[in-house]
Amino acid sequence: RNAVIYEMGTAIGQYTTRRRYCELYINGDYRGVYMFMENIKRDDNRVDIATLLPTDTAGNEVTGGYIMKVDRIEGDYEGGWNSPYPKLGGETQQIQMHKPEADDLHPLQLAYIEDHFTAFEHALAGPNFADPVLGYAPYIDAESFVEMYFANEITKNVDAYRLSQYFYKEKDSDGGKIVMGPWWDFNLGFGNSDGCDSYNTNGFESNTGCRVLHPFWFERLREDPNYRGLTRCMWDAYRADVWSDEAIDAMIDSLATVLAVPSVRDHARWPRLGQYVWPNVFIGQTYDEEVQFLRDWIDDRMAWLDANIEGDCVLGCTDPEACNYDSDALYDDGSCEDCGCPQDIDNDGVVTVSDILAALSEFGCTSGCTADVDGDGQVTVSDFLDILSVYGNFC
User: Fold this and answer.
1) What is the pLDDT of residues 44-101, one digit of tens each?
2) Residue ranges with strand state E in the chain
């Protein structure tokens, strides 16, 4: 199950932990089939963010290189802080440092990331949360939150939102937004658990009894019509391409083929076909039955999500630098057009005095004007100001 959702993540450009199936022997004793995979840490080929040095305590340097998570606080607890906003059920929400661990951070670094993340939560919880300037938007990579939502809801993972939820922040000079991911730990997804109605292919995991343990972020984000619209746009785009039924079936076929022969040895070592294994609901009699159950469950789940993912999608050009930029568009449809360099009137590749002189020669022109760089239908002072604003630029 981990392999399937990781393959789906890779298909949409997510970094997902590199993994290999392997058969384990210890001193000649066969121990079965396992997935061998890398853990989550900062690395050029893993979470590709800047290394946070102990001396990075001010300015841009202190702003990034943090990996955080929401998870159990027992065992591998690496320190962190308590959010001022409780879980949906009222319990205290801990935000944990993953890498670097809290004990390895300079006090100024821990103070910075706690303050920054708390500022995001204040913005999200506040009355202007949906405002593109005053709300949550400047703090997060919204598409990464949507994709994490997809991973949790496609798998209907009983641990969704509340455990193994990783997120990170790069330095401000490299974007600086809070990015949700990498995806991690979906072994109880895809109908593999009887908890919190997660076996049922209908319904949102975020609406089950386990929601009381979730942070408030995803529920609050869904109150923003633009976020819901982005969610719908991204869902439709992925389903029309790399998450089509055929594409997902091909992923399952590939994985099932890899495991077909090793699974015989694994089930001989650990007999469990035809037996109840906690917390499963379905009990397959054969390996093929288990694969078919997974395939059918995913087909039904995706169909339900097709009909129930919220939001009204508005497609268009989302690049502010493009000539056909659409400020109402929620998701880019690939239609953006390069404006070129209208201030380079003489087309010599650079904006210079000659372009100003060319504009002067057309001052007052109202028809067929090459110097109407602002597109208002006439050559006026505003066109000269536009040319001066990019004076010396190469086109």
Assistant:
1) 999 999 999 999 999 999 999 999 999 998 767 779 999 999 999 999 999 999 999 9
2) 19-26, 29-37, 66-70, 80-82, 94-99, 165-169, 178-180, 315-316, 331-332
Instruction: Report pLDDT for 37.
Output: 97
356 and 214 together in one domain: no
Residues 277 and 345 both lie in one domain: no
Same domain, 237 and 300: yes
CA 376 to chain centre: 40
Q: For residue 370, give the nearest of 351, 342, 393, 390 by alpha carbon.
A: 342
- Do 122 and 219 belong to one domain? yes
- The rounded distance, in Å, linking the Cα atoms of 68 and 216 is 16
Q: What domain range is 331 assigned to? A: 311-338
Place 167 in a pLDDT band, splitting at 50, 70 and 90.
very high
In this structure, the chain runs to a length of 395
Burial class of 269 by CB neighbour count within 10 A (0 to 12, 13 to 18, 19+):
middle
d(CA 82, CA 74): 15
Question: 102: which DSSP letter?
Answer: G
Environment class of residue 191 by beta-carbon count within 10 Å: exposed (0-12), middle (13-18) or buried (19+)?
Answer: buried
